[in-house]
Amino acid sequence: MSRCALWRLDPGSYARHELHAVERAWPEANCYVDLWIEVLHTLGLDPCASLAFTLAIDFEGDQWTFFKPPVADLFRLYGIDVQELNVWRALPEHVEEQVSRGRMVIVDADAYFLPDTGGMSYRSEHTKTAIGIQEIDREEKRLGYFHNGGYYALAGADFCGQFRLEEDAPSLPPYAEFAKFDSIRRRPPAELAMESLDLARAHLSRRPSANPLTAYKERFPADVEWLTGKDLSVFHRYAFATLRQLGACAELSAHYLRWLERKGQEDLEPASRELDAVAASAKALQFKVARAVNTKKPVDLSTLAAMESSWAAATAHLASRLGT
Fold this sequence. Notes:
Elements: E1 4-5, H1 31-42, H2 71-78, E2 81-84, H3 91-100, E3 103-110, E4 128-137, E5 142-147, E6 150-155, H4 157-162, E7 176-180, H5 189-204, H6 212-227, H7 232-262, H8 269-295, H9 302-322
Antiparallel strand pairs: 1-4, 2-7, 3-4, 3-7, 4-5, 5-6
Helix pairs in contact: 6-9, 7-8, 8-9
């Protein structure tokens, strides 16, 4: 078997979904959320309906929730069945088998061998990230994959490095999943919106009992003090785990609520505005922290206080409008 692919996609002409538009405050959130936005987009399904889970994010102590679409939501909304892949033989063989059966393989990859991370991790740092593989050619050593906000390809040495084809040392296999698309449901827009609204109520009911930004505001000065003196790579890891997850999730929540309004759910705009404010403030705070760490000057906590108030207002409004 040579090349096998789910769709005929060209990385050079691939048009990403509007949720990944560069003018957004946070064009990308995290690898798993982002690849599913693009996969649903490629399938001709509306990814906005899947964003109900963003309403349940929390501050987890040393990070904000690494939010991702629950597989149960993907199945309920679209009929997409995601299962864990048991990696018991060479990973390229599994990928070829599953893609040839019409399934996408999601695997923990090494960004060191992902050309789309040029200027960040590519050929400079080994970091874990999730990719969705929809095309493989084992003979030509080529791979087509979704990652973050787009669709890309790799080949040659990157293919060999990604699959550890030239390493003698034993290593644990990566975590992998496969997505089955043979029972996809293409619901009418009104029906899809009702299913999504039901999920929104369920996820909102799981929200933190206390304002998570209150806890983060209390923790924040110690985080900045700890970051002072660390190198820039430590700051980037901290920012990704905290401010990016918080800000990106808030912005996606705001977009989702406006989507629900367009589908007929009334009076969600006040919550959307407050969540947009959280997203923008998280972006600004990220730059302030970077400067503070570099100059060793204190960070003004008024930004976090405003975010705390916006979060409380958004949550209260949603609870009253959605009845949770």
